[in-house]
Write a structure and sequence with these properties.
This protein is mainly alpha-helical. It is built from ten helices and four strands.
Length: 273
């Protein structure tokens, strides 16, 4: 077997740093960085589309905090014995081994954010257009963190472009197999997300109706996620995740194929600025 392309850094960096019993995982840190970048981008898109940036900030913060807090509480509830031995881990941003925990947390976060948007009278399709490129940017950054940490690892591969993990922490935190060359599927996903982000930025001045950017994001993300899902290791929840990507593609038609008579133009945005 030849030398791995990533062999020079095959242990990678599942832990960014640790002080006593308090550890900051690299994956969690990159997720946080992605969220910060997404919030900054969201403010710019809100101004471009004639929305109140302060309301969009509140919308995003409510959704993010609800998701993070829900995920932490659910993770503690499902792995109470582990957190009882290491209570400071509840402050970390380690990924959950149960896909349903993240799914439920995201649903709760989205529901809370939508409730706020409706209460403030915000246009949900236009808000979705602001969220689409911001989400693509955040996913691109977070997927890079997953690669460095060994989370959401790929299937075994023989070619030299594979990555081999050796860190015991990667195995302990994310169940990453050690000493086996794997597809760097997280890098594939990061590149796909950043390409989608660039495509959405390019299409931004060409959109003709509310929800169009969001529909494009759903379609491209669904296609990319479903295709790259075959390079992911067969872990719990893989079927559900693939069905979610199919759902993304189907729902995208609601935004891309609806009548444009009720849409808006770029000039409508300019008149609001």
């Amino acid at each position: 077997m030849g030398r791995s392309f990533f062999s020079a850094s095959n242990s990678l960096y599942p832990r960014l740093f640790q002080i006593g019993h308090f550890a900051i995982p690299t994956y969690g840190a990159l997720i946080a960085l992605g969220l910060v970048a997404a919030l900054a981008a969201l403010m710019q898109f809100a101004r471009r589309m004639g929305l109140d940036p302060n309301k969009l900030w509140n919308f995003a913060v409510i959704g993010i905090l609800t998701t993070l807090i829900s995920a932490r509480l659910l993770l503690v509830a499902t792995a109470f014995s582990v957190f009882r031995k290491h209570p400071f881990w509840v402050l970390g941003l380690t990924a959950s081994h149960s896909s349903w925990v993240l799914s439920v947390a995201v649903i709760l976060g989205v529901a809370a954010a939508i409730f706020y948007a409706l209460a403030e009278g915000l246009s949900l399709p236009r808000v979705a257009d602001c969220i689409a490129p911001s989400s693509a940017l955040a996913l691109g950054i977070s997927r890079t963190g997953a690669f460095l940490a060994g989370a959401d690892y790929g299937v075994p591969v023989q070619h030299a472009f594979g990555v081999t993990y050796t860190s015991a922490l990667a195995r302990f935190w994310y169940g990453t197999p050690l000493g086996i060359r794997l597809h760097p599927v997280q890098i594939y996903e990061a590149v796909a997300s950043l390409l989608i982000f660039c495509a959405l930025i390019w299409w931004l001045p060409r959109r003709t109706q509310d929800g169009e950017l969001f529909g494009i994001w759903l379609f491209l993300s669904g296609i990319a996620g479903f295709s790259l899902g075959f390079y992911r290791a067969a872990i719990t929840g893989v079927v559900v995740r693939q069905l979610i990507f199919v759902f993304f593609v189907i729902v995208s038609a609601m935004f891309l194929l609806r009548r444009k008579s009720g849409g808006y133009t770029v000039e409508d945005d300019s008149s609001r600025n």
